[in-house]
Amino acid sequence: MTRRLPVVNSDDGAWGDWLNNFLLKEHFDTTNTPDVANGGHKTITIRPGTTAAATAPLKFTSGALMSTPEAGAMEYDGTSLLFTPATTRYNAIMNGLGLSGGQTVIGGTLTTQNLSLRPNAADLTTGAIATLGTLEATNSTTGSVTVAGGLAVNKRVYATDMTVTNAITANAVIAGYAATATTTVTITVGSAYQQYCTYSGNQVVNMPDVTSSVVVGQQWQIISQVPSTNYVTINTTGGTNRLIQLYPGASATLTCVSTANNNAASWSVSVGVAHQITVANQATVGTNGPLNAAVGDIWIDTTVV
User: Fold this and answer.
1) Which pairs count as long-range contacts for 135-144, CB under 8 Å and 24+ apart, including other chains?
2) For residue range 60-95, what is the model confidence (pLDDT) as tens digits?
3) Domains of the chain (ranges plus CATH)?
4) Which residues contact 160 (CB under 8 A, 6 or more apart)?
5) Does pTM surpass 0.90?
């Protein structure tokens, strides 16, 4: 097809109509006169893309964000697609989360908002997170998250720091597990709840520094699985103060009750003995108890005197 400019006093009228129809389809014009408001885009319909590269219907080029957010602006910094509804930038899309009634703030504070989740297929293959109630966070990136309403989950929830004010119901709760076979175990604020001590001799467990990150009520369970002639010594951070010694088969649950100082007063210690009660008579009782007893066993002598 031959392409040409319209011919003056010939078919320029038809060309003008066609051109105006094309321009006015998605461009604003109410006065048909030169006006600063005319020419802006309106009611834009974007054609679909294809599977080929570089054919996306809409693509942003990354660049520096404006020094001052502007209401109505959408920007892309190479990592996040950001939108400014008023004076603060928000993450428009974040890791498969569909935000309803609230947004994740970039460089600000997230106050009481409702949050609805659209599961990411890689994490939640079936079902969804339901009935989240109200989400409150002092900082959406590093602060704690408080769920004031109910939380019903039929898949997994991962949280670095979450405080729940109402009850959470779950069919099964799996506590963190760690088994250590070295001479010294150093517990940190992020260590697994269950700590199995499996060294071949005496083993030392140093609890975390309560003045840094640990919160009152945080617990760890220490289980001694060292050989029968050895024991596990549990100390405050750095091995400063001994809290308790556990013989084989015994366990202790340590609860932080104060974050003021790293001493025995900062920990509540509850001890459990995992051994059996042995019933024996004089024929099977040696000088130190039943011949088949292990350290920590309780035994009853049934010999009639």
Assistant:
1) 135/102, 135/110, 136/110, 136/111, 136/112, 137/109, 137/110, 138/109, 139/109, 139/110, 140/104, 140/105, 140/110
2) 999 999 999 999 999 999 888 888 988 888 877 653
3) 68-165 (no CATH), 177-273 (2.60.120.640), 276-305 (no CATH)
4) none
5) no
